[in-house]
Design brief:
With 200 residues, this protein is mainly beta. It has one domain. Helices cover 0% and strands 56% of the residues. It has no helices and 14 strands. Strands 2, 3, 4, 6, 7, 8, 9, 10, 11, 12 and 13 form an 11-stranded antiparallel beta sheet that branches. A 3-stranded antiparallel beta sheet has the order 5-1-14, with no helix packed on it. The chain starts with 33 loop residues before the first strand and ends with a strand.
């Protein structure tokens, strides 16, 4: 999350995260059964993730899933993966440094469907997100769910900023972040173990 367009801060909770799939609200028909090659422990790295609320944008230099896990199979895609530890580096808003921390763990990775337009993409969500951001004169929590897709060709988890599931609470931020603000998170996480997520 680098140069920002607002003045006080916003978190990138979710960042949400990461690992082999996140998802998009414009998804195809839900699929019931999933398999993952290269399952087990993984790490993931994103460059320049950002999180925006109506009055501010938080940018970070990078974000890392330093501990996560992917199941080999899932009958319904729910909890196919977990994000157990995630970090954000060099985050700021309008030049003011902010710290982003994970409040609760794990965050859950859920597979939903094969993308109708891009058959190598898996639509999904990262849920149970809980993160805290803090800077000079500003603090807030972000909880909820983010949407995106996992790209089986690029081995990247893409969080696309769509949806209304990531929401601010406990905000004390000079009016720049307010309780109930919906946050748009954008990031692309390269997954180290190069998993492939598919449905039989």
């Amino acid at each position: 999350m680098h140069k920002l367009v607002a003045r006080a801060a916003v978190v990138t909770a979710a960042i949400g995260a990461a690992v082999g799939l996140a998802a998009t609200s414009a998804s195809a028909t839900a699929t019931s059964s999933w398999t993952v090659t290269h399952s087990g422990a993984y790490t993931a790295h994103a460059v320049n993730p950002s999180l925006a609320v109506p009055a501010a944008t938080l940018n970070c230099a990078s974000s890392d899933v330093t501990a996560g896990s992917l199941q080999a199979t899932s009958t319904n895609g729910v909890g196919l993966g977990t994000i157990n530890t995630i970090t954000f580096t060099n985050c700021s808003v309008a030049g003011i440094t902010f710290k982003v921390t994970m409040k609760a763990t794990p965050w859950k990775i859920n597979a939903v469907s094969v993308n109708a337009t891009h058959p190598t993409w898996v639509n999904g969500t990262v849920s149970s997100i809980s993160a805290h951001i803090a800077g000079v004169g500003c603090a807030a929590d972000f909880t909820g769910t983010v949407n995106g897709h996992y790209d089986n060709t690029a081995h990247a988890l893409v969080i696309d900023g769509t949806g209304t599931g990531l929401v601010a609470s406990g905000a004390s931020c000079l009016g720049l972040i307010n309780n109930g603000d919906v946050a748009a998170f954008n990031a692309s996480y390269a997954v180290s173990t190069l998993p492939v997520i598919s449905t039989p």
